[in-house]
TrEMBL record:
Source domain of life: Bacteria
Protein name, entry field: Alkylation response protein AidB-like acyl-CoA dehydrogenase
Signal sequence, start to end: none
All copies of domain Acyl-CoA dehydrogenase/oxidase C-terminal, residue ranges: 249-389
Ranges for domain Acyl-CoA oxidase/dehydrogenase middle: 138-232
Gene3D superfamilies with a match to the protein in the record: Acyl-CoA dehydrogenase/oxidase, N-terminal domain, Butyryl-CoA Dehydrogenase, subunit A, domain 2, Butyryl-CoA Dehydrogenase, subunit A, domain 3
Cofactor(s) needed: FAD
Family according to the record: Belongs to the acyl-CoA dehydrogenase family.
Alphabetically ordered keywords of this record: FAD, Flavoprotein, Oxidoreductase
A GO molecular-function annotation: acyl-CoA dehydrogenase activity
Amino acid sequence: MALAMDISTETRNLLADVHEWAVTHVRPRAREVDDNCAFPADTDEVLAVCPVRHSPLDFRYSGPGHTDDPEVLRKLEGGGDLLGLLVMEEMAYGDGWGWQALPGNNLGERAVRLLGSPEQIDKWADGTLRGEYKFTSICMTEEHCGSDLSQIRTNVARDGDQWVLNGQKRFISLGAISDYLVVFAQTDPGSGLAGIRAFIVDRNDPGLSVVKRAEDKMGTRWYPQAQLQFDNIRLDDDRRLPSDNFGEIMAIMNGTRPYCAAIGIGTARGALDYAWSWVKEHEKGYSSKRWDLLEDQVKEMRHGLDRVRNLVLRAGWRHDLGTADGTFAHVAKGHAVPVIEAVTFRAMQMMGPAGSSKEHLVEKWHRDVKFLDITEGTNQMHRIGVSRAYIGRMASKA
């Protein structure tokens, strides 16, 4: 991994340990997870030897979890988003399911921290750090709409001292296994974004049902996305997150979009290294001219991954300085995904017919990275976001 930055010896050692764990313990189970759309039976044993104790997505709040020593955390690039992005890439190098199985992959937790009251943050968000909750989910997407919250049809109505929630959500990551959900619903039908509010739904609340535990997807089958039904779920007012600031809602994604790119960089890097090792084992089948061309292409692809990594780490660095920057998040994911897709596809091509065989993992990784262009916003949406930042809101009208 080439970095246009200096990182500490402690960080490099931790990344080496994570890399070894991901290749030795996570990758050998990748095909099983892909076939079964579920974590392997010995997941707890795999996680027990992981060098960190929390998902990198949560390092900003939890740190890596293997130490509470502030001096050690300082040497680990502060133990925040920058470290999380570096570790996420190394985990994805082995395979994506490893980071996903760790505690702290909590978009729901982040939503509570950004939108909730101090009491809600203490109970629900800090509860994940105390080990009271393992997984949480954020419920935005519906059958007819994705990132456009103004189109949400799931509704919630006031009834005395309570709220009554009805509707359905689809493609909800970890929705079937999360301990609690942060559900975005419409309080005033027809009002668009002005009526959107977020509510906390506990796994055991009457009226919550799982319609489908996991979508049968092309890729990232280790990332189970559920379809959920809400039937007259009665919620006390302390389950309503008080903020109605749409910018704060989107700030959730500003912090997590760079992680989508980091996952893709690690996956693409793993696919390229795997394919290149396979090609070198079969070097005798190539002419010298073709071999020179392949070497040049591999160097170019590694350079492309280095460039997008620097954009991703820049977004993490900005977040560690204070607030997640929406433009940097758009740039990081929007520029990274086409490069990641191209590298992974070329890695599969380099292996010829073997690249598409289930005998190798490269075809799986190619399917996995395709998912990244959809999750947390498509590439077109990111380009609009960047254009608006530099040109103005009329950029999307062109």
